[in-house]
Amino acid sequence: MHRGLWVVAALSVACRGKAPALRSNPPTCGSLEVQHGGVTLGSEAIARGARVPCGGSLSTDAGGRAVLRTDDGLELRVAGDTRLRFADGVPSLERGRVFAIGGGAEGRGFQIGDARVEIGDAALELERDAPGVTGARVIVVRGEVAWRQGRQQGLLAQGESLEGNSSLTPRPASVWDDWTGGAASPQGIARPEGAASARPSRTSPTAKPPWPSRCALMRCAR
Hints:
Layout: H1 2-15, E1 28-36, E2 39-41, E3 44-46, E4 49-53, E5 57-60, E6 65-70, E7 75-87, E8 90-101, E9 108-112, E10 115-119, E11 123-128, E12 136-142, E13 144-149, E14 152-157, E15 160-164, E16 169-172, H2 213-217
Parallel strand pairs: 8-9
Antiparallel strand pairs: 1-4, 1-6, 2-3, 2-5, 5-7, 6-7, 7-8, 8-11, 9-10, 10-13, 11-12, 12-15, 13-14, 15-16
């Protein structure tokens, strides 16, 4: 009888102890593939690949190259002295350059300063304080994207750009060197696997002719 009481008392004391805390991993919004060293997630150097936290940041140094595939269907090619931050899963370019490829009719947000572009079935270059660029610049290489900055908004078609410092202005695309290793060429731009084709893009009166003549305008590398 006394032994039974001792066991009950011991169990009672043990139950009063704190249960071990369960560690939960932060939510992620994409998969990172390192193509050349010099890539960090937050403060951690990444050598091969990793999942990207939705509230984290991605940086590449002068020689770093990486491809980020977001869970909502964007492919982001990052290189050079570039820093991307993610707020609620939406990428935001703080500095450097990114080549973005999307598929399907549904737009996916991308922030550049206080401007936002919606990327559907399109491919575009985004730059902010990159070498040779003061302020921000968006160049549409394929398709059409919607943009908004404050009370201003509009559509950019293939061959058009959005450029400026505090206030961005649409204009015909200027000269651009393809640093993507051919990803910006017609053969290199591949829609994400399983993505549906969007509606045909609208051609702006100011848009340049499509490939290959526009490729010569932008001096696309081969």
